[in-house]
Design a protein that fits this description.
The chain has helices at residues 9-24, 29-46, 50-74, 90-114, 119-128, 133-163, 168-199, 217-239, and strands at 79-83, 86-89. The chain is mainly alpha-helical.
């Protein structure tokens, strides 16, 4: 696998947002074709495995497939083909093609730039780009809380299975008690975590902030090149 185009998570997010907004504004066929070429070039540059890319695109592709399939037969006036009661329209076909290409390109960028980042690193990158500290804390605490709940749920379900002896009504009732117990435990745990954070000075005025990591020069040049790429595609779209 080749090296990542950008190693700094903050610049990865910045590059993703820049290209995504640029790609979403493209409509001309020439600009869309160059967008596809640029996307394939970024996939090659990053060395993203095709299997991982296809797996990541599978579920979002199902969501957009309905719109892409229906639009050519319902939008526009110029009929180019008829299949019984269905009529294929040029305007709808062009719109569906543009939507499909932009969708695949943007989701491919997501996989290339942030697909392999741990969620905690992604949240830290957003904090480095100016996301309010309160939202960062809420996101990190939510991630930890979900992991704790998952662990507790698995342990309690194992205990239920080991006890056995439940009919279907008993299992239904036991599951209700299990969920209620998880809710009470999570509430008590969240209060303990909150008081521990306050005692350690979290959120106090004048608290020191961590020093920002130095951005490699190669990452800066790569980001500049990607910004220039997005701007060039917008110029081509405007002139086409």
């Amino acid at each position: 696998m080749r090296a990542d185009p950008i190693t700094d998570p903050r610049l990865r997010v910045a590059a993703l947002l820049t290209l995504a907004f640029g790609f979403s504004a493209l409509h001309a066929p020439a600009a869309l074709a160059l967008m596809v070429v640029a996307t394939l070039g970024l996939v090659w540059w990053s060395g993203t495995p095709a299997r991982r890319l296809l797996r990541a695109l599978r579920l979002p592709g199902i969501v957009v497939a309905g719109l892409v399939v229906v639009l050519p037969f319902t939008s526009g006036d110029h009929v180019i083909a008829a299949f019984g009661p269905l009529t294929l329209r040029a305007e709808g076909l062009a719109a569906a093609t543009g939507i499909a290409l932009r969708f695949v390109a943007i989701f491919t960028l997501i996989v290339v730039f942030v697909g392999a980042l741990p969620l905690s690193h992604l949240i830290g990158a957003l904090r480095g780009l100016g996301l309010p500290a309160l939202l960062v804390d809420m996101a990190l605490l939510t991630l930890r809380h979900i992991e704790d709940l998952r662990h507790d749920l698995a342990r309690m379900q194992t205990a239920m299975r080991l006890r056995g002896g439940y009919g279907w009504l008993g299992r239904f009732r036991a599951t209700g008690w299990l969920l209620a117990s998880l809710l009470l435990r999570s509430h008590a745990r969240s209060e303990r975590v909150y008081h521990a954070m306050i005692l350690r000075g979290h959120g106090a005025t004048g608290a020191a902030l961590p020093d920002a990591a130095t951005v490699p020069r190669a990452d800066k040049w790569a980001l500049a090149g990607l910004i220039a790429l997005a701007a060039s595609l917008l110029v081509v779209d405007h002139l086409a």
